[in-house]
Design a protein that fits this description.
With 340 residues, the chain is mainly α. The chain has one domain: Farnesyl Diphosphate Synthase, CATH 1.10.600.10. Helix content is 72%, strand content 1%. Strand 1 and strand 2 form a beta hairpin. The longest helix is centred in the middle third of the chain and has 28 residues. The mean pLDDT is 91.
Length: 340
Amino acid sequence: MTRMYTALTDHHQNLSLDEIFSPVLGKLKSVENLLPTWSEDTSPQLKRMARKIISKQGKLIRPGILLLITGHLGYKGKKDIKAAAAIEAIHLASLIHDDIIDGSTTRRGKKTALQIFGPDFSLLLGDFFFIRSLAHSLAIDREKIPSLLTSVTQKMIEGEIEELTHAYDYDLSQAKYFKIIEKKTACLFQATCELACRLGRATKKENEALKKYGLNLGLVFQVVDDLLDLLGNPSETGKPGFLDLKEGRITLPIILILKKADGRTRASLINWLDEIKHSSARMNLRPLLRLLQESRALEQTHDLAKSLAQKAKQSALALKPTVYRQLLLDLVDFVLYRTK
């Protein structure tokens, strides 16, 4: 983590994910154990591929959210584990496809499916996880839940397409940026909360509050991801720095600095960003970071993330007080101040 990022986060101390998910760690383990079984009835090659990638699972934030909410709602059945696995499979599929689009060889410090299997096999593996998620959701609920997962998958694909459409678009507006990340990232957080509400038979008020919680938490997650691309330590984030810039993604800090720059500075900045795009050599990007810092674009970006985090907390506070509600609040701080 760079000093610049430490300054933005004010050395904030938050609970670890294990602490936040402590009441549902047993169920999260069941989710981890369930996912590999989904490839048991497939070809030997696909089974090996799926197991290898599933073994590289990350933080399981989305399944954890679902299980905290069903815990809050007093759900007593076993479908929450299947639902959490379905959500994680969609997330896993999206990561595989993202890595193909970006040409990423590492994620979380480990080789990606693209690096291990190549683009053709990886594309099909991502498709497999999408389809398996929808197929297994039929065992949970034959109408509402498969429809919800189909809808969120479509939105995520739309978000990816819109992001690719606006690659190297230096006129991208802040409003359009937020619409893209809502589809690309936040809608899965929101769908996770809605799915938990359907399982736990939430009231209309609880459902609305938790959908807003998920949406804003997902937006915070992506905005912080954009900051970490610029300021994070690759040894902590597990992926190369400045990947967004190299792939042409115009993220919030860049949008903010381009918006406030005068004509000459804007032209110079765009020329410099174009140089990053076309350069195969490793460039010294510290001057850009200094410019972002001096213009307060980084600080403004984190302030916007804080504002979204506050909205997420306000939504959670509409729920009745429980230990699960408190952990949902703690999770907002974890996402806002995370370093990887």
